[in-house]
Amino acid sequence: MADVPQASKKRRYASAIITLVVGQDEESVSFHVHEDLLREHSHFFDAALKNQWKEAQERKIALPEDKPDIVDMYVQWLYGGKIEAAVPETWHRAFPNAIMEAWTSSIDQPNANGSRYLTSVRTLSEIYQNTTSGSPVRQFLVHIWATYRRDHWMRSDDDVERLLECPEFLLDLARATVPKPANPYQSLHEMRKKWLYDV
Question: Are both 48 and 128 inside the same structural domain?
Fold first, then answer.
């Protein structure tokens, strides 16, 4: 079967430039970012830049409640995959906290059909590759999968491959979903028919 091109292999930086106006009034700062990067990594920006939205027509998105320093780090991450700037220790917590605030808020608001976009296996894999054991964002992803996972999340070959390449997540998920039976032990022999072949 022919290989299917992946989104990550598409040509980058060939799209239009979007202006992010961050902060309020004279303290606002403008950032100029390629549209494809914004839409690839953020469901918020992807939705805001759909043709029917005003932001899509003006090629400008106002973020009055956000802090320029935080958005600056986000833009660094979009283009480089890491944050180079030496920043105060508190910002290392403020940045992921701001991302978590926005992420959870966007999930809480269902789509027009009532469904919610929780996360993708690709996002999960990237986060686990770039975070440490026990980090809050890992705990968040485990909670989503332990509570809301669906079979179709694990059907595509690409998703299955990514999950198998992420053993730390699978172990975290297994730990989070260990059943807590009412009785300390049940006879395995009495339940054996569950595991026998039909003859």
Answer: no
